[in-house]
Amino acid sequence: MSIPHIIVIGAGSTGSATAHDLALRGLRVTLIERGDIASGTTGRTHCLLHSGGRYCVNDPEAAAECIVENRIIRNIIPDLLELNDGLFVALTEADLAFKERFLEGCATCHIPARELPITHALEIEPFLNRGALAAVQVPDAVFEPVRFCLAFLATAQQHGAVVRRFTEVTDFLYAGGCVSGVKVKDHRTGKTENIGADLIINAAGPWVGSVAAMAGISVPVKPTAGVMVTLDGRLNNMVLNRLSPPSDGDIVVPQRATSIIGTTSWEVEDPDVIPAPADHVAKMLAQGEQLLPAVQKIPVRARVAAARPLIVKGDKEAREASRTFECFDHQDDGVEGFVTIAGGKMTTARAMAERVSDLVCKKLGVAVACRTRNVPLVSYRLFYQGGSYA
Amino acid sequence: MASLNYPRVRRAGRWFDLRRRRMGMWAYALNRITGIGLVVYLYLHLVILSQLPGGPGSWNAFVALARSPFFLTLDVVLIAGILIHGLNGLRIALTGFGIGVKAHKILFGIVMFIAVIALGVAAVLIYGG
Amino acid sequence: MLEITLQIFRYKTGESPHYDTFTVQVAESASVLDALDVVWAKHDHSLTYRRACHHSACGVCALRINGLEKLPCVTPVSSVWDGHTPLRLNPLRNFPVVSDLIVDVTGLFQRLSASDLEITRDAEPTLPLSVDNLADLGTRMEPEPVEPPENLTRFNRFESCIECGICMSACPTVAADDKFLGPAGLAAIYDERHKTGDPREVAHLLALADGEHGVWRCHSAYECTEACPQAVDPAGKIMALRRELIANRLKKGRRK
Amino acid sequence: MDNPFTKEPRATTTWLWQVVTGVLLLFLLGLHVIANHFIVKGGLRTFADVLAYLRNPVFLVLEALFLIVVASHAMLGIRAILLDLGISDRMERWLSRALTIVGVLTVGYGLWLTWAIIH
């Protein structure tokens, strides 16, 4: 039997990691992306490599995934991270009361957590609210989303994967009741063509619903938008979180010379264009000011909104929906040769890729194990030298 | 996929595309124009001097021509070129040695100021002499 | 809401380049990239342009607005829109145009790979910030170097350069000399040279800078430093490399 | 993929030479202008003035030096401009040789001219 050919739709973090996983297993992979790498939700994430601390009390399943992946990512792309850890800071008595539950949660999820003397925390973070009552250190880190994806893709290319950017899937092709390929339009040339495949993976993030709809399938993913406000100055060394259950504007991620405040949460119909609502931006600044009183003194550099692909079960509010991920084999919907991977965080992209690749290999009868946990990625710069414009 | 790649000669024309460009670019273009001008002058100068072995007759005819107001004006242009190229060259040399890099715009202002003053003096001498 | 007109450079393989004009509505605080997103989503899905982070971390969206190189993601429409003249958007210069506003950035990344500059730098002792009037907030005006928490040896940061290609587009030498290492490539050499302690690597980096297409090809137009959205100051770094090369050359001359 | 940006020839010397000749020119050109136009009142107007000037060994040496320096500076300048056309490495070597020859011919012609005038 010839080597199976897999098409992955979407070059965000999930699609990039999946292309890498499958290429490393020796499969033929074509990644199709209608825009540029990470041009959807991935590009506009908070840049936070989660320790899991944020979810350890309310969503321990997601938290446990985060810390495992956090350690793996540190090993495979150590040069693409700002490794300055994170602080969970208590500002009120209620926050202080939450501390014990937080430390317990961290312990349960195996997240290393340690309380810093508040004087030391204030010394490390000179712009932190001087009224802070307690600070807990966790192994958060900061990445840059595009290079994160490029590193996976450059490595995938070295293993033979083909990346087609600015190429949009317009329809599915079928053979005998089974998906057999896709019809695409290359926006760079305006030309359309058919690409055959043994199996197709839908990794389109908040757009998985519209991709699956082309095959007449629905997936329980709700695009849920969030706003981030990027300041024109860096106010913190470490990632600062409010020591309380996740809510709006309770996290400030520093990156390079900026601080990024996030985030809010509301459901959107069309994830293509999401203007950042002015009231959300104002709320971010007001909330951010509680952690870092200097926030309002710094000019705003950018206001960004993007949709998370949250898997919604029952009638949970978006903020409470789990950040974990799920793999859908559309065989169950009567369509063979088509699977969807959705949900999750960018931190867990590699694990999502492993899960969907395992499923794909099982379906195709390929008995090769996942190796992405231990294989360091090549320089992201090689992506542009891999002839992807050819 | 064919990409749009402009021919080299056309791209080289961007040396002098000063639209919306800033002071450093103007300094560079000025230096290049004066440099090319001075090389042209160097060879013109040698060609004119080649009349000297012909004896006093042709030389005197040339000197008479060279003292016409038109040629004196050309002399002023020549001196302007020398001053701009020479003084700006000094600025480039200094910044190349790591001196005044942050102040390269001020330096340009200073050398151009000196050039204008010196040109004024030269013009007075030329037209006055 | 603002109603603005964009005049966008269009090119597809086999077609002749031209401009298309679009009128879109955006929020008062919108960036030029936000406006492009609206053009793509609501008017013309075949428009190709690069975008990802929308907040100047990734560097992919760089293009020219009214002739000048900018990051549209952090260029507010209000800063470039005069109310009636269409905003003209062009791809970066000095790169092959692939389609519409996309250029082939391979050359930039080859140049950056020459020095193998790592994107993070260690040992950041303090926050790079000076904010006026912070005294009343009870915070220190100028943070002093601090000790990171125990298990961190030191704080680190991403390099300032976001590899956007703006300096290459602004540089008059890159325009025609395809082999010139260019502002970004030379700045990366400078940064890597100051990161490494290995004399052999230093010698290699300085030799690169000293190449026929290295720092000496620069014509001191300072356009790169003027255009850089991240205050990398490539021209300053080129001059610093020149200074070091000259010093080394003169020392060597004396020894002979 | 072969990276074309990692080759390592040296260019500091060329640039330094351009600076040195440039600075020398500022002095020599100054002397040249003063000697030609201001030493003799009203400048070298007559043919006899020119002959007398060139037969003075000090001026003769200065003029010869000036010629050499100005030709070097000009050739290096032309080379820099032509390199901006992005020529190939082979073309570049050829160009350097050609400019050296042009420079030598220029200086040679100038010296011959001087010799012809004096005699």
Concise description?
The complex is a heterotetramer of chains A (about 400), B (about 130), C (about 260) and D (about 120). With about 400 residues, chain A is of the alpha+beta class.
Summarize the largest interface: chains and residue counts.
A-C, 68 and 72 residues
Question: How many E strands of chain B?
Answer: 0
Find the count of extended strands of chain D (DSSP E, 2+ residues). Answer: 0
Mean pLDDT of chain D: 83
Using the coordinates shown, work out and report the CATH topology of chain B: 3 helical TM bundles of succinate and fumarate reductases
What is the string of SSEs of chain D from the N terminus onward? HHHH
CATH architecture grouping of chain D:
Up-down Bundle
Structural class, judged by helices and strands of chain D? Answer: mainly alpha
User: Span from first to last CA of chain B?
Assistant: 67 Å
The average pLDDT value of chain B, as a whole number, equals 85
| Rg of Cα set of chain B | 20 Å
In the CATH hierarchy, what is the class of chain B?
Mainly Alpha
Q: Biggest sheet of chain D, in brief?
A: none
The fraction of residues assigned to DSSP E strands of chain B is under 5%
Shape annotation of chain B: extended
How would you explain this protein's 3D organization?
The complex is a heterotetramer of chains A (390), B (129), C (256) and D (119). With 390 residues, chain A is α+β, with helices and mostly antiparallel strands. Chain A has 8 helices and 21 strands. Chain A folds into 2 domains: 5-42 and 146-220 and 322-385, 3-Layer(bba) Sandwich (FAD/NAD(P)-binding domain), CATH 3.50.50; 86-140 and 222-311, D-Amino Acid Oxidase, Chain A, domain 2 (2-Layer Sandwich), CATH 3.30.9.10. In chain A, strands 5, 6, 7, 14, 15, 16, 17, 18 and 19 form a 9-stranded mixed β-sheet that branches. The longest helix of chain A has 17 residues, at 60-76. Chain A is elongated and about 65 Å long. Chain B is mainly alpha-helical and 129 residues long. Chain B has helices at 8-12, 23-49, 56-66, 69-96, 104-128. By secondary structure, chain C is α+β, with helices and mostly antiparallel strands. Chain C has 2 domains: 2-103, Beta-grasp domain (Ubiquitin-like (UB roll)); 106-119 and 159-255, Alpha-helical ferredoxin (Fumarate Reductase Iron-sulfur Protein, Chain B, domain 2), CATH 1.10.1060.10. Chain C contains 9 helices and 9 strands. In chain C, strand 3 (63-65) and strand 4 form a beta hairpin. Chains A and C meet through strand 4, helix 4, helix 5 and strand 19 of A and helix 1, helix 3 and strand 9 of C.
